[in-house]
């Protein structure tokens, strides 16, 4: 049989056909829980099983005195005491300092 992705099947049984499927779940969850194991090569499943998906993540909150830019081309003043508030998630492959990687 052809082992190419052809879409996804939703929990209610609805099938959505597609030539390409993207997952925002971790590789372990995507390939070990959402994909039928019999459709994947054994070596690939074994490698994904050992794949470390833990990720140290931090969030930086910043502010300045400019208007808020929503990223959609619109600019609006912030109604609070701060003129601009931004959150930026950061991820690192390790708890080591980048110079030690």
TrEMBL record:
Task: Output this protein's name.
Answer: Uncharacterized protein
Superkingdom, natural source:
Eukaryota
What family does the database annotate?
A: Belongs to the carotenoid/retinoid oxidoreductase family.
């Amino acid at each position: 049989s052809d082992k190419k992705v052809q879409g996804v099947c939703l929990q209610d049984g609805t099938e959505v056909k597609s030539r390409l499927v993207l997952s925002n779940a971790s590789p372990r969850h995507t390939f070990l829980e959402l994909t039928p194991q019999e459709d994947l090569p054994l070596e690939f499943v074994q490698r994904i099983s050992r794949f470390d998906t833990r990720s140290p993540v931090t969030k930086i909150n910043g502010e300045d005195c400019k208007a808020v830019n929503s990223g959609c081309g619109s600019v609006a003043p912030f109604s609070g005491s701060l003129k601009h508030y931004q959150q930026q998630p950061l991820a690192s492959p390790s708890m080591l300092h980048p110079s030690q990687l």
